Amino acid sequence: MRKALVVGSGSIAQRHIRNLRTLYPDAEIICVSSSGRHIVAADVGASRVLQSVDAAIVNKPDIAIVASPATHHLEHAQTIIKAKIPVLIEKPLCVSFSDLSRFSVDEVNNKVVVGYNLRFMPAAKIVKNLISSDRLGRISTVFSEVGQYLPDWRPATDYRKGVSAQKNLGGGALLELSHELDYLNWFFSNFSEVSAVLGSSGILDIDVEDTVDALLVNQSGTICHLHLDFLQRTPTRFCRVVGEKGTLIWNLIKNEVVLLKLGSVDEVVFSDSGYDRNEMYIEQLRSFIAYVYGSATFESTLNNSIEVMRLVDAIRLSNAKRAWIKIEAIN
After folding, report:
1. CATH number of the domain that residue 67 is part of
2. 261, 31 Cβ separation under 8 angstroms
3. In this predicted model, what pLDDT tens digit does every residue of 206-245 receive, in sequence order?
4. Alpha-carbon dihedral angle through residues 40, 21, 59, 35, given to the nearest 10 degrees
5. 188 to each of 22, 87, 185, how far by Cα in Å?
6. From CA 331, how far away is CA 327, in angstroms rounded?
7. In terms of domains, do 27 and 155 share one?
8. Nearest C-alpha neighbor of 32 from the set 57, 59, 56
9. What pairing do the DSSP bridges indicate for beta strands 63-66 and 48-50?
């Protein structure tokens, strides 16, 4: 990999640039500011800065990463796809499932993936394997929760000016914390219906929802309780899976997976409190490059992320109608 394009100049774009530089120190990294504002290449770690995606494409990058605000993901990605450049689109894929009606991908000639990076954590892969292995038996209920006080995400900046807090940039708890929807879909899939409520408490003075509570039911009858919020002063993030043979708890903050069984000592299946969370981004990037050059598959596919957007729209519709919504009705 000799040349890469990164669209965007915010925190996630800069992370991708740093990681590209780590893996490919001699590569040329071109950055395009998605907002059109003036940026200096050295400030974001890029080799050079160009003013448009079209100008960057002329330079024939080997890969591209779209890390602009979600409202611009499809617009920027479509230009890159037409040039037949492999692209990783940051999550979420877009703002609404209906946006995809204007999005075109040739699955034979284009390599397009989406950056749901939790899939690249070792703990996540262990949880997936445990669920698939039948060690828990039939699964009845799942509890998935993530909550963290939005002003604490990036304390050096005004959170109200960030993407997460602005509706016109694709913010809100539902899209910003859609990692949970992605891994639930990965673990359990085939969700058939949903009931949800979106909340705007007013505590943060933002124009997007700061809480999401949803029940998702899959075709096997498993019920998933989902909670997302921007409000909890003490961060929490976990997934608890209740099965007939035991209960699995994945604590994402402790980076620990524990299996609870009746009458036996709790089994710590995985624990790594010293894990560098940038490693999941590095592994995601390695996997993307391997996929581009034909030596591997990529776990977080475009189709997976389209299904996440279908769930997002179903949750919104359920909130609007205060009713259960059939997932298949979102098309």
Report:
1. 3.40.50.720
2. no
3. 999 999 999 999 999 999 999 999 999 999 999 999 999 9
4. -40
5. 35, 27, 5
6. 9
7. no
8. 56
9. unpaired
